Amino acid sequence: MGDALQDLYQELILDHNKRPRNRRKLDHPDRLAEGFNPLCGDRVTVYIKLDGDVIQDLAFEGKGCAISTASASLMTEALKGKTVADAMTLFDRFHNLVTCGPEHNGGGPELGKLEVFSGVSQYPARVKCASLVWHAVHAALENKQEVVSTE
Q1: Over pLDDT 90: what percentage of the chain?
Q2: Model-level pTM greater than 0.85?
Q3: Residues 6 or more apart from 135 whose CB is under 8 A from it?
Q4: Cα angle 111-112-114, degrees, rounded to a multiple of 5
Q5: In whole numbers, what is the pLDDT of the chain averaged over residues?
Q6: CB atoms near residue 106 (< 10 Å)
Q7: Smaller CB count within 10 Å for the chain: N or C?
Q8: Closest to 133 measured CA to CA, from 14, 48, 28
Q9: CB distance 23 to 45 below 8 Å
Q10: What are the residue ranges spanned by the domains of the chain?
Q11: Confidence class of residue 102 from pLDDT cuts 50, 70 and 90?
């Protein structure tokens, strides 16, 4: 990745960390799930409002590092308006991106701004920071009740 692109990616992560989008509690969500990363203490709760099988609204609360917060913010923007099936496919693509790198990112919906996390695979401890909220939204969409852990 070129220096200019890496600088742009860092700027996007910092922006979403400082001014997270959709960081709020949703009243009367159809689904919710909690996530916890015991390695660094990141905690997140995701709230989902569905219209049939379409994610009408999505929000999160919690505390975490810059990577975790930016991932939650960008995820909420990416998944709003998507079907549950598309959200699950995007989960798989994002998970492959952060665990295996961009070269192993198969077909499916485009990642768009989520590509900002393409370098995370080089830092195994950061993979859990970036993926925590995604595991929580996956559990919420499957209507699982237990707290999701990165361990």
Answers
A1: 68
A2: yes
A3: 35, 148, 150
A4: 65
A5: 90
A6: 10
A7: C
A8: 48
A9: no
A10: 3-149
A11: confident
